[in-house]
């Protein structure tokens, strides 16, 4: 149902754009030299073009988890109190960015810094394409500024690392199709004498898709043994699915990189000049405060465009 609703939402957006474009065409046919109508038509055409560009861009976000929410963790790196304050600044920046996108956010874990800022913090960002966009921010972020914690007012360099994971549905539902199971029945083993089973009550289940085999022979009836064997099989399949999710998370998290010199993806320079530059795409701006206030889309979109088709 979630997938169906997401697809319906996308279709509704494109249908709405098509309807607006048709209305604009109809207006153009009757506008003639009416200055008011022509002005309205120009504004609508510009708005349609801008929204179309944005919507076409989201079509490139076709990864398995791109349409869903994200888990963002920020870790202070080299730089002590400076780095912890920088991690807090990044937290504010991403919360502001999410607010501009109308994404819902929640701080799920936070370790405060010893003097200022945070040592680490984790937030969930829930909204359409949240992970698709935020995956562009994964890596080390570097700040250069005059330190507010240095009595000598000297320039310091600080680092913080961003980890971004998709929100993966972990409500595992194990459904076992009878067609996937081969059932063998056999005599239960006993101590001999009167306790030896005369009927085949033991059950062995072969789950063909996974290759898992379980058996049960403790109960006196075949039905009871089959029910217990199914419970065991369901538990084993649950464990396999948990391992798969853990492996997927590890793959998405990627190699652990230290937040230090030489590993940064973006530099934020507040002194001796003003600049934010992405070292992967060379996109830069001379207005770092605007970026720190959440204007991240130019950097995010530039990086995502480099990933199209890769």
Based on Cα principal axes, name the global outline. flat
N- and C-termini, Cα separation? 30 Å
Reading the helices and strands in chain order gives HHEHEEHEEEEEHEEEHH
CATH C-level label of the largest domain: Alpha Beta
CATH architecture assignment of the largest domain: 2-Layer Sandwich
Strand content: 15-25%
Low-confidence stretches: 191-196
Count of domain modules:
3
Largest beta-sheet details = 8 strands, mixed
Helix and strand content put the structural class at alpha+beta
Number of continuous helical runs: 7
CATH fold-level assignment of the largest domain: Alpha-Beta Plaits
Nearest-integer average pLDDT: 86
Largest sheet: spatial strand order? 2-3-1-5-4-9-10-11
Rg over alpha carbons: 29 Å
Q: Helix share of residues?
A: 40-55%
Tally the beta strands. 11
What can you tell me about this protein's structure?
It contains seven helices and eleven strands. It is an alpha+beta fold. It has three domains: 2-58; 70-170 and 259-307, Alpha-Beta Plaits (2-Layer Sandwich); 178-249, Double Stranded RNA Binding Domain (2-Layer Sandwich), CATH 3.30.160.20.
Features:
Alpha-Beta Plaits; Double Stranded RNA Binding Domain; 3 domains; eight-stranded mixed beta sheet; three-stranded antiparallel beta sheet; 7 helices; 41% helix
